[in-house]
């Protein structure tokens, strides 16, 4: 009896697994075709200073699937990373963002805006990453000092030295770097000091608990304060992501945060809907 039901469970499980594998494979094929067929689109979310003046945007990719509609990056970036299409996707994002930067160079309000682009670990670790980025800048004619590449702590695992060399090479041509989602991953503070970074982006989880009225609120606020101070000690611009309320914005200003991003100011939108 027990054996039977065990086998049934496992057959059922296998069928379920197979279905999920098939839909994953289908999505993977769709994505490959989608990248080539121009189904990707860049949305932009503003980053503001404490006067709420826009100082730049972050490019956030969206996929408009022909039947499934808009898909968020959380649901397809990992697929692209597994299939290897992340290089194709990442290059498309870089190029599109650089083209936009060039367009904005003559714009009355946007000429000073920076463009932040998320980079995947596979892109960063590819041998020709530096060439890809510089080629993109050269071919589009975008100003390199307006481009900010966002990397995450987990990308520094393993071969950190090689990553530092690449970052320095890109920095030499003017490109800047931000450490994204800071505080959620593996933090080796001695590496942090050696990375040629310009910005530290505090993860939104700290921003949302910073103003909690629970008992933990005070400790959380001190934690956020410490991260901001750490960033400043390292000479970095501190950016808060995921700012959703006025209270969060004001608390972060008091704590010395430099730049703010979140739904409180703007959602990620198409270029035409930017302020
Ligand atoms: P991220 O780089 O940390 O981007 C911030 C995410 O938080 C974005 O989600 C943004 O829409 C969302 N967000 C912004 N403000 C708020 C807020 O006030 N509240 C809340 N709850 N969320 C907010 P999105 O666009 O879905 O992107 C998710 C992640 O996907 C990004 O996290 C980034 O890691 C990755 N991603 C996006 N575009 C690209 C890309 O072009 N290439 C790569 N490799 N990854 C990308
Ligand atoms: Mg980011
Ligand atoms: Mg982030
Ligand atoms: Mg985040």
UniProtKB/TrEMBL annotation:
Residues 24-275 form the EAL domain. This is GGDEF domain-containing protein. It comes from Aliidiomarina shirensis. The lineage of its organism: Bacteria, Pseudomonadati, Pseudomonadota, Gammaproteobacteria, Alteromonadales. The chain holds residues 643 to 917 of 917 of the full protein.
